[in-house]
Amino acid sequence: MTINVEGKLINGKETAAAILREVAQDVERFVKEYEQPRLAVVIVGDDPASHSYVHSKVKACERCGIGSIHIELPASTSEEELLERVDGLNGDSSVHGILVQLPLPPQIDQQHIIERISPDKDVDGFHPYNMGRLAADKPRFVPCTPQGIIELLDRYDVETAGKRAVIVGRSIIVGKPLALLLSMKGGHGNATVTIAHSKTVDLAAVTREADILVAAVGQPKVITADMVMEGAVVIDVGTNRITDPSAKKGYRWVGDVDFDAVVQKVSRITPVPGGVGPMTIAMLMKNTLTAAQWAQRAIDEQ
User: Fold this and answer.
1) What's the pTM?
2) Which domain holds residue 106?
3) Between β-strands 251-254 and 240-243, what pairing exists: parallel, antiparallel or unpaired?
4) Strand ranges of the sheet holding 38-44, from the earlier edge strand across to the other edge
C-alpha cells in the first residue's frame, strides 16, 4: 500500500509564510498612525547555530516591515555588561521587543538575563511574570514555539478538546508552556495533558496513549514507530544536526521523531526541517507587533 506522505504533512513553512504576510499587513496599517515596531536582538559569542537563528529573525523583520537592532557581543562579555545592555534597551521607548539569543556563555546566568528584560518587551515570553500569567489562564506574551504549535493545530483543524496529549520534554521553552496552553479552557485547549521526560517509566507505553504527541527532547529519532498510536498527530520540535557524507554540506537536519517510520502510522506530522521551526519566528514577529500595539495603547491612555 502506498502512503500519501504529502497529505499527512503539517507544513510549517507555508503556514509561517502566511502568518508573516498577515503581520506585514497589520504592521503597514499600524505605521500609518504610529511609529514602526522595533525588535532588538542580542547575541553573545560566535556559535554558528545561534548566528543562523538570529539572521533568520532579522530577515523576518525585514519581510514584515518591523525595524530590527542587531547587537553582537563577544563571548567574553560579562553578565554585568549584558545586564547593562538590557537595561539600555528597556529604557529605549523606540524598542518594543527584546530578545537575547540563547544559550549564553557559561559566565552568564541565563535566568538573570531573562528576568532583567522588561515583561512589556519580553517577546520571547520567558519572563516569570509572563509565565505566571500563562499559568493563571491570563496569557500575555506566550513563548513562541508553543504558540506556533497551537497555531499549527488550529490552522490544520486538529481537535484538541477531550484528546490525550503527551509532551516529551519539560523545558520552560516548549514543554511546560505548551502543556498549559493545551490544557487551558477554551480555544485550542481542553486536552488531557501528560508531560513525559527522562525519568518517565516505560516512556513508550505513555506515548502510545497520545492522540497528539509532541517530541521536544533534542535527541535525533528518539521517537520510533512502536511508540506512536495509529492515527495520532505528531508534532516534532527537535532540530538535530547529524553527519551525512552524502549531503552537500556533510550533514543534515533531523527531528526527534523517526519520520520515515512514524509517518506510516500517523494522520498528521510535522517535518524537520519545515515544520515547527518557521512557526517560532513567525510568532516572534507577531509578539513584536503586539508589544508595539500595547505600548502605544499605554501612551494613548496617559
Assistant:
1) 0.95
2) 35-118
3) antiparallel
4) 67-73, 38-44, 97-100
| 208 and 112 part of one domain | no
Pair (95, 199) in one structural domain? no
Q: Is 25 a catalytic residue?
A: no
Residues of the chain with pLDDT under 50: 1
Q: How far apart are CA 170 and CA 193, in angstroms?
A: 12
* Catalytic one of 26, 101, 121, 286: 101
Q: Is 13 a catalytic residue?
A: no
3-state secondary structure at position 166: strand
- Provide, rounded to the nearest whole percent, the portion of the chain with pLDDT above 70: 99
Number of independent structural domains in the chain: 2
Residue 244, SS3 per DSSP: coil
Examine the residue annotation and report whether 101 is marked as an active-site residue of this protein.
yes
Question: Same structural domain for residues 168 and 75?
Answer: no
Same domain, 248 and 163: yes
pLDDT of residue 3: 64
